[in-house]
Amino acid sequence: MSRGLLPCNGGCDFAADPHASALSQPIFWTPQVDPGAIIFAVGPPPDGSSITAEMLRLRAMVQHGSDLLRLELRGERYDIVLTDPEARGALGVFILFDDLTPDRQTTLMRFWKAITGKRVPRDPRLTQQRHQRARQMLRVVDARIKGATYRQIAAQLFPNLKHDAETWVENPVRETTIRLARDGMAFVRGGYRKILRLPRRSR
Fold first, then answer.
1. Of 27, 77, 88, 94, which sees the most CB atoms within 10 A?
2. Are the C-beta atoms of 151 and 168 separated by less than 8 Å?
3. Would you report the helix, strand and coil content of the chain in percent, each value rounded to 5?
4. For every one of its 203 residues, what pLDDT tens digit does the chain have, with 9 covering 90 and above?
5. Are 70 and 60 spatial neighbours (Cβ–Cβ below 8 Å)?
Protein backbone atom coordinates (compact mmCIF):
# COMPACT_ATOMS: atom_id res chain seq x y z
CA MET A 1 0.00 0.00 0.00
CA SER A 2 1.22 3.46 -0.80
CA ARG A 3 0.05 5.17 2.41
CA GLY A 4 1.24 2.93 5.20
CA LEU A 5 0.42 -0.56 6.38
CA LEU A 6 -3.33 -0.19 6.94
CA PRO A 7 -4.55 3.24 5.78
CA CYS A 8 -8.14 4.02 6.63
CA ASN A 9 -8.94 4.69 2.98
CA GLY A 10 -7.96 1.22 1.77
CA GLY A 11 -5.01 2.56 -0.20
CA CYS A 12 -7.18 4.68 -2.49
CA ASP A 13 -7.81 8.41 -2.65
CA PHE A 14 -11.52 7.54 -2.66
CA ALA A 15 -13.48 4.37 -1.96
CA ALA A 16 -15.02 4.99 -5.37
CA ASP A 17 -14.75 7.51 -8.18
CA PRO A 18 -17.32 10.19 -7.26
CA HIS A 19 -17.71 11.10 -10.94
CA ALA A 20 -18.68 7.59 -12.08
CA SER A 21 -21.72 5.44 -11.41
CA ALA A 22 -21.34 2.73 -8.79
CA LEU A 23 -22.78 0.35 -11.39
CA SER A 24 -19.81 0.87 -13.69
CA GLN A 25 -16.92 0.50 -11.24
CA PRO A 26 -15.79 -2.00 -8.61
CA ILE A 27 -16.42 -0.87 -5.05
CA PHE A 28 -13.97 -1.98 -2.37
CA TRP A 29 -14.77 -1.51 1.31
CA THR A 30 -11.91 -0.87 3.71
CA PRO A 31 -10.99 -3.84 5.93
CA GLN A 32 -11.94 -1.78 8.97
CA VAL A 33 -15.54 -1.64 7.72
CA ASP A 34 -15.87 -4.95 5.88
CA PRO A 35 -14.76 -8.04 7.81
CA GLY A 36 -15.08 -9.90 4.51
CA ALA A 37 -11.95 -8.15 3.18
CA ILE A 38 -8.89 -10.36 3.63
CA ILE A 39 -5.56 -8.66 4.31
CA PHE A 40 -2.46 -10.46 3.03
CA ALA A 41 0.94 -9.48 4.37
CA VAL A 42 4.45 -10.85 4.02
CA GLY A 43 4.94 -13.67 6.48
CA PRO A 44 7.39 -16.42 7.32
CA PRO A 45 7.41 -19.26 4.76
CA PRO A 46 5.17 -22.14 5.88
CA ASP A 47 6.21 -25.79 5.91
CA GLY A 48 3.59 -26.71 3.34
CA SER A 49 1.83 -24.92 0.51
CA SER A 50 1.84 -21.13 0.40
CA ILE A 51 0.13 -18.24 -1.37
CA THR A 52 1.93 -15.44 -3.18
CA ALA A 53 0.74 -12.13 -4.55
CA GLU A 54 1.25 -13.41 -8.09
CA MET A 55 -0.98 -16.43 -7.41
CA LEU A 56 -3.73 -14.15 -6.14
CA ARG A 57 -3.44 -11.83 -9.14
CA LEU A 58 -3.76 -14.77 -11.54
CA ARG A 59 -7.08 -15.67 -9.90
CA ALA A 60 -8.38 -12.09 -9.71
CA MET A 61 -11.48 -11.14 -11.69
CA VAL A 62 -10.96 -7.45 -10.82
CA GLN A 63 -7.82 -5.57 -9.85
CA HIS A 64 -7.92 -2.00 -8.55
CA GLY A 65 -4.52 -0.41 -8.37
CA SER A 66 -1.75 -2.73 -7.28
CA ASP A 67 -3.11 -3.68 -3.87
CA LEU A 68 -6.83 -4.44 -4.23
CA LEU A 69 -8.07 -7.66 -5.83
CA ARG A 70 -11.43 -9.34 -6.17
CA LEU A 71 -11.44 -13.10 -6.57
CA GLU A 72 -14.31 -15.40 -7.45
CA LEU A 73 -13.88 -18.90 -6.09
CA ARG A 74 -16.54 -21.60 -6.30
CA GLY A 75 -19.20 -18.98 -6.99
CA GLU A 76 -18.22 -16.72 -4.06
CA ARG A 77 -16.42 -13.37 -4.21
CA TYR A 78 -13.58 -12.38 -1.92
CA ASP A 79 -11.91 -8.98 -1.66
CA ILE A 80 -8.16 -9.08 -1.08
CA VAL A 81 -5.90 -6.33 0.25
CA LEU A 82 -2.14 -6.66 -0.36
CA THR A 83 -0.13 -4.70 2.19
CA ASP A 84 2.99 -5.12 0.02
CA PRO A 85 2.00 -5.46 -3.65
CA GLU A 86 5.62 -5.98 -4.68
CA ALA A 87 6.19 -8.91 -2.33
CA ARG A 88 7.37 -12.06 -4.10
CA GLY A 89 7.53 -14.51 -1.22
CA ALA A 90 4.93 -16.40 0.77
CA LEU A 91 2.10 -14.35 2.24
CA GLY A 92 0.25 -14.69 5.50
CA VAL A 93 -3.11 -13.29 6.55
CA PHE A 94 -3.26 -10.27 8.84
CA ILE A 95 -6.41 -10.31 11.00
CA LEU A 96 -7.43 -7.09 12.68
CA PHE A 97 -8.12 -7.57 16.38
CA ASP A 98 -11.38 -5.77 17.05
CA ASP A 99 -15.09 -6.37 17.59
CA LEU A 100 -15.32 -7.91 14.12
CA THR A 101 -12.57 -10.49 14.63
CA PRO A 102 -15.08 -13.41 14.75
CA ASP A 103 -16.54 -12.19 11.44
CA ARG A 104 -13.05 -12.04 9.93
CA GLN A 105 -12.31 -15.60 11.07
CA THR A 106 -15.49 -16.81 9.39
CA THR A 107 -14.47 -15.14 6.13
CA LEU A 108 -10.97 -16.59 6.29
CA MET A 109 -12.27 -20.12 6.86
CA ARG A 110 -14.65 -19.81 3.90
CA PHE A 111 -11.79 -18.49 1.74
CA TRP A 112 -9.48 -21.30 2.83
CA LYS A 113 -12.10 -23.90 1.91
CA ALA A 114 -12.72 -22.23 -1.45
CA ILE A 115 -9.09 -21.96 -2.47
CA THR A 116 -8.35 -25.54 -1.39
CA GLY A 117 -11.29 -26.93 -3.35
CA LYS A 118 -13.48 -27.84 -0.40
CA ARG A 119 -17.20 -27.27 -0.01
CA VAL A 120 -17.86 -23.67 1.02
CA PRO A 121 -20.83 -22.91 3.30
CA ARG A 122 -23.09 -20.03 2.37
CA ASP A 123 -22.08 -16.58 3.50
CA PRO A 124 -23.82 -16.31 6.91
CA ARG A 125 -23.93 -12.51 6.80
CA LEU A 126 -26.79 -12.00 4.34
CA THR A 127 -29.38 -14.51 5.47
CA GLN A 128 -32.65 -14.96 3.61
CA GLN A 129 -34.47 -13.17 6.43
CA ARG A 130 -32.03 -10.23 6.31
CA HIS A 131 -32.31 -10.02 2.53
CA GLN A 132 -36.11 -10.03 2.62
CA ARG A 133 -36.28 -7.38 5.36
CA ALA A 134 -33.81 -5.14 3.53
CA ARG A 135 -36.04 -5.27 0.45
CA GLN A 136 -39.10 -4.42 2.52
CA MET A 137 -37.36 -1.50 4.21
CA LEU A 138 -36.26 -0.03 0.89
CA ARG A 139 -39.77 -0.37 -0.52
CA VAL A 140 -41.19 1.44 2.51
CA VAL A 141 -38.60 4.23 2.32
CA ASP A 142 -39.31 4.77 -1.38
CA ALA A 143 -43.04 4.90 -0.71
CA ARG A 144 -42.67 7.34 2.19
CA ILE A 145 -40.47 9.64 0.09
CA LYS A 146 -43.22 9.67 -2.53
CA GLY A 147 -45.80 10.66 0.09
CA ALA A 148 -47.56 7.35 0.79
CA THR A 149 -49.19 6.90 4.20
CA TYR A 150 -48.34 3.99 6.47
CA ARG A 151 -51.74 2.42 5.82
CA GLN A 152 -51.28 2.67 2.05
CA ILE A 153 -47.87 1.04 2.37
CA ALA A 154 -49.22 -1.73 4.60
CA ALA A 155 -51.90 -2.49 2.02
CA GLN A 156 -49.15 -3.18 -0.52
CA LEU A 157 -46.80 -5.08 1.78
CA PHE A 158 -49.44 -7.18 3.53
CA PRO A 159 -52.41 -7.41 1.12
CA ASN A 160 -53.89 -10.45 2.89
CA LEU A 161 -54.04 -8.79 6.30
CA LYS A 162 -56.80 -6.53 7.58
CA HIS A 163 -55.80 -2.86 7.83
CA ASP A 164 -59.01 -0.84 7.52
CA ALA A 165 -59.40 2.67 8.93
CA GLU A 166 -61.52 1.56 11.92
CA THR A 167 -58.93 -0.85 13.36
CA TRP A 168 -55.77 0.72 11.95
CA VAL A 169 -54.55 2.47 15.12
CA GLU A 170 -54.57 -0.78 17.10
CA ASN A 171 -53.49 -3.03 14.24
CA PRO A 172 -50.09 -4.71 14.80
CA VAL A 173 -49.40 -4.27 11.07
CA ARG A 174 -49.28 -0.52 11.70
CA GLU A 175 -46.40 -0.90 14.16
CA THR A 176 -44.60 -3.27 11.79
CA THR A 177 -44.89 -0.77 8.94
CA ILE A 178 -43.72 2.14 11.09
CA ARG A 179 -40.75 0.09 12.28
CA LEU A 180 -39.83 -0.80 8.70
CA ALA A 181 -39.91 2.90 7.81
CA ARG A 182 -37.79 3.87 10.83
CA ASP A 183 -35.22 1.11 10.29
CA GLY A 184 -35.28 1.75 6.56
CA MET A 185 -34.27 5.38 6.99
CA ALA A 186 -31.43 4.31 9.29
CA PHE A 187 -30.50 1.71 6.67
CA VAL A 188 -30.12 4.22 3.83
CA ARG A 189 -28.27 6.66 6.08
CA GLY A 190 -25.40 4.23 6.61
CA GLY A 191 -26.97 1.35 8.48
CA TYR A 192 -26.75 -0.82 5.36
CA ARG A 193 -23.14 -1.47 6.34
CA LYS A 194 -24.41 -3.84 9.01
CA ILE A 195 -25.10 -6.30 6.20
CA LEU A 196 -21.32 -6.66 5.91
CA ARG A 197 -21.28 -8.16 9.42
CA LEU A 198 -22.60 -11.34 10.94
CA PRO A 199 -26.06 -10.94 12.51
CA ARG A 200 -25.93 -10.02 16.18
CA ARG A 201 -28.74 -10.00 18.71
CA SER A 202 -27.74 -6.53 19.88
CA ARG A 203 -28.10 -5.08 16.37
1. 94
2. yes
3. 35, 15, 50
4. 333 334 444 444 555 667 777 677 788 999 999 999 999 999 887 777 789 999 999 999 999 989 999 999 988 899 999 999 999 889 999 999 999 999 999 999 999 999 999 999 999 998 899 999 999 999 999 999 999 999 999 999 998 877 678 888 888 999 999 999 999 999 999 999 999 999 876 44
5. yes
Query: 98-107: string of b/e by CB count within 10 Å (b at 16+)?
Result: eebeebbebb
Q: Is 150 exposed, middle or buried (0-12, 13-18, 19+ CB in 10 A)?
A: buried
Rounded CA gap, 202 and 36, in Å? 20
pTM for the model:
0.78
In a 13 Å sphere around the CA of 109, the CA atoms on its Cβ side amount to 10
The SS3 of residue 187 is: helix
Output the DSSP codes for 45-80.
Answer: PPSS--B-HHHHHHHEEEEETTTEEEEEETTEEEEE
What stretches of the chain adopt beta strand conformation (E)? 37-42, 60-64, 68-73, 76-82, 91-94
